[in-house]
Write a structure and sequence with these properties.
Length: 380
């Protein structure tokens, strides 16, 4: 049974259906301007672009298709360096609870001498300190704050941060990967300048991402990472992944239509899981901001239990100790550590993430299984 929807999601059958034509019948290259095959593919890409843009209240012209949120993040953080004053490394502000893609790119930019990075920790609930931020913005060019955390589900005050960031003349980049498709996102209202997100977190295909770059003034210029045929207004060369992009568009359309109902249904299941475990098991705790979290995510600490042993014991339930992108690393979760948990506490935490296809029967089964496994492991 799959309770790891923050790692990835199965394709929605409506997305599969929508993509199916674009593997064979409508296989044209959208850059072929001289015939029907190319026009057909280009029309499909532009329709998808509109749907992707609508999901976050952007304009079509502000969306660039990439291969993943990771690629979009790389494009933004590396590409923005073009705007820096000559001979001055760019200053970025980030939080240590950001996704590995942001942390690793920043780490490398620091090593290469291209950027100075100020890195804050989140507070115990996984939230950000706006006063600390506003005191630190002198000389800062870009602030990166994710909209929602992949490990705890904590939702961050992106709109409030944007006000502080813009008052200091800096740009705001938000990683929307976990939030887009789950909660309403409005890049205009929140005044986000740059953003990244991905189809496979919202029942779309793997290998397709989007980069949002705000139009209008002051103009934002990004140096492209991949150059070649001038696709995507020169910001991302390479023939477009038409079936993937069509699937992304359909996934966004469905998410926008069904987000409210899904939040209510899945939120009830998540709450049922937490309430039952809190009632039955002593010495467990919930990580993240309980009042301000993604409705599908529950990150639970089980004192005295090693999370990997627990997950192995519950072998038919797919949950995780941390983000899939960091599963190669052996250390404790950097997100939980940034919130002040000890190594031992962080090693006791399991992320349950529910989604569109989670049923009440699955949650009932999971409750029984977690209670039995935790009790058994504690009595060993
Ligand atoms: N940002 C966040 C918050 C994520 O959760 C993930 C994936 O887990 C990514 C970025 C990377 O997304 P992608 O797999 O599309 O590269």
């Amino acid at each position: 049974m799959f309770l790891d929807y923050n790692a990835t999601t199965p394709l929605d059958s409506r997305v599969v259906e929508r993509m199916s034509d674009y593997w064979s019948r409508s296989f044209g290259n959208p850059s072929s301007r001289d015939h029907l095959y190319g026009w057909d593919a280009a029309d499909a890409v532009e329709e998808a672009r509109e749907r992707v843009a609508n999901l976050i209240n952007a304009r079509d012209s502000e969306i660039v298709f990439t291969s993943s949120a990771t690629e979009s993040i790389n494009c933004i953080l590396k590409g923005i360096l073009k705007q820096r004053a000559l001979n001055e490394p760019d200053a970025f502000v980030i939080w240590s609870s950001e996704h590995e893609a942001v942390l690793e790119v920043c780490h490398r930019l620091v090593i290469s001498g291209d950027a100075k990075v100020i890195q804050f920790n989140a507070d115990a609930r996984g939230q950000v300190d706006l006063d600390e931020l506003s005191r630190s913005l002198t000389g800062v060019h870009l602030v990166a704050l994710m909209a929602a955390n992949n490990e705890t589900g904590s939702i961050y005050p992106v709109g409030e941060v944007a006000r502080v960031v813009h008052a200091a003349g800096a740009l705001l980049f938000s990683d929307l990967t976990q939030a887009a498709g789950k909660i309403p996102i409005d890049v205009r209202a929140d005044r986000i300048d740059l953003a990244a997100f991905s189809a496979h977190k919202m029942y779309g295909p793997k290998g397709v991402g989007a980069l949002f770059i705000r139009g209008g003034e002051p103009k934002i210029e990004l140096e492209p990472l991949i150059v070649g045929g001038g696709q995507e207004r020169g910001l991302r060369g390479g023939t477009l992944n038409v079936p993937g992009i069509v699937g992304f568009g359909e996934a966004c359309r469905i998410a926008q239509l069904e987000m409210k109902d899904e939040a209510e249904r899945v939120g009830k299941l998540r709450d049922k899981l937490e309430e039952a475990l809190l009632a039955e098991l002593p010495d467990i705790w919930i990580n993240g901001d309980r009042d301000n979290r993604l409705y599908n995510t529950s990150n639970i600490g089980f004192a005295g239990v090693d999370a990997r042993t627990l997950i192995r014991d519950m072998h038919d339930i797919a949950v995780s100790t941390r983000s899939a992108c960091s599963s190669g690393s052996q250390g404790p979760s950097h997100v939980l550590k940034a919130m002040g948990l000890t190594d031992e506490q962080a090693y006791s935490c399991v992320r349950f993430s529910l989604g569109r296809f989670t049923t009440e029967e699955e949650i009932d089964y999971t409750i029984q299984k977690v209670i039995a496994s935790v009790t058994k492991l504690r009595n060993r």
